[in-house]
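I keep forgetting this: the sequence line spells out the residues, with the fold written below as integer tokens. I include a record here:
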Amino acid sequence: MKKTKIEDLKRIEVEEFKKSIKHDVIIILDNVRSLNNVGSCFRTSDAFLIKKIYLTGLTGTPPNRDIERTALGATQSVEWEHIKNINEIEQKLKKDNWKIVLVEQTNKSINLKNFIPNPLDKYAFVFGNEVFGVSDESLKIADLAIEIPQLGTKHSFNVAVSLGIVLWDYYSKIK
């Protein structure tokens, strides 16, 4: 066994990425405090060819050195927009037939393993603040909430880790 060389990975350039057909997935980061988490979310979103990231509330925006440290250039490839009020973008997406899916522990959350995405539907996955979770506004408008099963003593995953788990789960189920 040997590691694959960078030049053998056949990665696409930013312009080719922008022209690529994306999955019908949008990411909404709801008041995410950590700029490193934001950067990691960009990098993972690039890897899964998502359509767009909405940065809402106090979530930091590019250009920012701390975001770039973990994004490794993905802020140039992944389309993004900052929206102050999360309710504004969720209402717009719902009108355009996007399913609003919270990644949150609620009294009505379904286990991620039981989430069966319909390949014909469009999904906006909402990831909340590292301490307080998704905003109350999102709870009122969401179509459903999914919860990642956990077996240890902690109650939650890091937001960037959660995003990676959810996107991999979605990708593996629609393929």
